[in-house]
């Protein structure tokens, strides 16, 4: 195992301990088991700490083969962020600016899947800073499902992380969090892109707590 891999495993373990200490995060495996085949965990996105919370909920072996898809424009902006993304965290960096990008994000993500990496993916494409529970899903999840139909698509709802680490905050605020993992989805034969994305969005929203705060 390379020095970078050892450092990433150690960092993941430390971050998991810290995340549990701050958030008391509790995984709810509502529609699937913790162990399974190659997966894409697709989740709501409102905080930079979202993927850390999902990783914390995974078993160590699964955590060790799971990487978060993140924007290269953010994580390559400055030496500190580059070090965190490239050395401490397991990230698959994609260039989101289609005008300036040099590598197709699909090529990068498919290469990671082909190398045996499960992915944490945010189909909204950016952090949701609105009052809506979810933004419209972009095409990435559909493209991945069409290109690698054997990969499980597992919806996971991250609860409260936007309040633990709101935009602009440096230190987290201790609050209880949950991550609810739903039943895996598959792209149906001949299924239209919009129909699939709407179905995936509904499946993710179904895992969110009710307005009174109780689980679905």
TrEMBL record:
It holds the Pfam family Acyltransferase. The keyword Transferase applies. It comes from the Bacteria. Residues 39-161 form the Phospholipid/glycerol acyltransferase domain. Keywords: Acyltransferase, Plasmid, Transferase. InterPro entries: Plipid/glycerol_acylTrfase. The keyword Acyltransferase applies. One of its GO terms (molecular function) is acyltransferase activity. This is 1-acyl-sn-glycerol-3-phosphate acyltransferase. It comes from Shinella sedimenti. The lineage of its organism: Bacteria, Pseudomonadati, Pseudomonadota, Alphaproteobacteria, Hyphomicrobiales.
